[in-house]
Amino acid sequence: MTTPLTIIPLMFRAKRPSRMSDMQAVAIPFWIRKGYEGMTFFGHIITHSKEEAERFNCHHDTLKNHEMIHLYQARSTHDSWICFYWKYFVYWLRACRYRKHLRNAGYLLNPFEMEAYDHMHDMQYLADKDNGTTGWHRYASMSLEERLQYYFARKRSACDCISSSSSK
User: Fold this and answer.
1) What are phi and psi of 104, to 5 degrees?
2) E strands along 20-157, which residues?
3) Which site among 53, 84, 157, 160 is 20 to 30 Å from 4 CA-CA?
4) What is the pTM of this model?
5) What burial class does residue 131 get, using C-beta atoms within 10 Å of its C-beta: 0-12 exposed, 13-18 middle, 19+ buried?
6) How far is CA 149 from CA 6, 110, 139, 152, 154, in A?
C-alpha cells in the first residue's frame, strides 16, 4: 500500500544525477496527474500503477526516454536535483501567464519539457555525447512568445504528418 508520504524517502535517498545510469519506476498514484504517464522525481519515475511501473522498468520506450532526458538535464544543472527543480519551477512559473493561450502552458513551454518532447523519439539522443542534453538552453534563451509560436508550429507539423499519412 502506497501513501502520499511514500515519496519522502525517495527525496532523501536520491543519488546525484551523475551517479545514476537508469531510473527505477515506482507506483505512487497520488502524486501524478491524470493525463500524464510518468514523472521524474529525484531519480525515480512516478507512475499511476504497478503495471505502468513494470513497463518503465522493463522497456526503454519513448516515454522512458523522455524521463531519462530529465536525468541528463539534472546533470547539466550543477549535477543537482535541487538546482534542476528550482530552475524547472522558475520556468514553469514564468510560462503560467500564457495559460489563457495554452492550457498547461507552464508545463508545455518549460525548456526542460520542450527538449524532452522534441527528442523523446530519438533513442540515440542520450548516447550522443556531443549534445549532453543541454538543448534546454536553446529553449530557455527564447522569449515566451517564441516558445509559444514554436510549440504551435511543432504541433501543426505533427498534425500535418498524421493527416498526410492517413490520406495515403
Assistant:
1) 65, 35
2) 24-27, 39-41, 44-47
3) 84
4) 0.90
5) middle
6) 39, 13, 12, 5, 9
> Which of helix, strand or coil describes residue 42?
coil
pLDDT digits (tens, 9 = 90+) for 141-161: 999 999 999 999 998 887 766
* C-beta neighbour count of 33 within 10 angstroms: 9
pLDDT digits (tens, 9 = 90+) for 8-47: 999 999 999 999 999 999 999 988 888 889 999 999 999 9
List Cβ neighbours of 80 (8 Å cut-off, separation of 6 or more).
16, 17, 74
What one-letter code names the amino acid at 115?
Answer: E
**Contact in structure between 106 and 50 (CB atoms under 8 Å):** no
